[in-house]
Specification:
alpha/beta, globular
Length: 247
């Protein structure tokens, strides 16, 4: 984890997806795909460190309103291609409102979030298809994908990329769970002070969530190949992903 996490002051969950076992005895490349939480609080020191990573593309899963409230703070004069893939699963905003109003407890949140992770698979093929388009775009790498906390939309994005190149399921789940070691403060999303168990549930990268999404891929599509095809990635595209992202 000390190697995988990029230590920044303003982004607590910035990680490299390199070093994982992939299909055919290969390994995911270091310094190629990164995942992160918000980039809005990067310090000057962070921006200098960020510049050394050579990132060429950023895929931002936040809604336009989220971006307006917390714009990315990138290095001055950067030439990074920014790809806006803003979305949020249907029902998420209602859930956040119910939490803020004190109507939802920890068990309610877990139930709703499980539903949202299944929706990543069934309802958001277009958005995650755009992620793969961005990865396959000529000269796109290294690439960073992020949202606000780096847990949900980005968590499934990371799982999708790892699954696409044949990383084992248990490794995908373990990568997802690493977010628990570096949780983003999301208190700014709420007007009221939330109970500790509610806060903990909201920021918890529960392995059941990503497992539900991976199960949904099998239920809805039957195979990784057919799921990728639904995202617009054909067999040639998948081979190119393996070439670009593994060694």
């Amino acid at each position: 984890m000390a190697t995988r996490r990029i230590p920044l002051e303003g982004a607590v969950n910035f990680r490299d997806l390199g070093g994982y076992p992939a299909q055919g005895g290969r390994t995911t490349r270091w310094n190629t795909i990164y995942r992160s939480d918000s980039l809005a609080e990067l310090t000057e020191s962070d921006r200098r460190a960020f510049a050394t990573l050579g990132i060429r593309t950023i895929c931002d899963f936040r809604l336009s309103g989220e971006v307006a409230r917390k714009p990315n703070r990138l290095p001055e004069g950067h030439t990074i291609r920014e790809v806006a893939i803003g979305f949020i699963p249907e029902g998420t905003l209602d859930m956040l409102s119910s939490i803020d109003a004190g109507r939802y407890g920890a068990a309610d949140i877990e139930r709703e979030v499980l539903v949202h992770y299944r929706k990543f698979v069934r309802d958001h093929t277009a958005e995650y298809g755009r992620l793969f388009d961005a990865i396959l775009f000529e000269g796109a790498l290294p690439l960073l994908m992020h949202c606000t906390s780096g847990k949900d939309r980005t968590g499934f994005a990371a799982a999708a990329v790892l699954k696409a190149v044949g990383v084992p399921r248990d490794t995908i789940v373990a990568d997802y769970a690493l977010t628990n070691d570096h949780r983003r403060d999301i208190s700014h999303l709420f007007s009221s002070r939330l109970a500790p168990d509610v806060v903990g549930t909201l920021t918890h990268a529960n392995p059941r969530y990503i497992q539900a999404a991976l199960d949904e891929i099998d239920i809805a599509y039957g195979s990784t190949q057919d799921w990728l095809a639904a995202l617009g990635v054909d067999e040639q595209g998948r081979k190119r992903l393996v070439e670009l992202l593994t060694e």
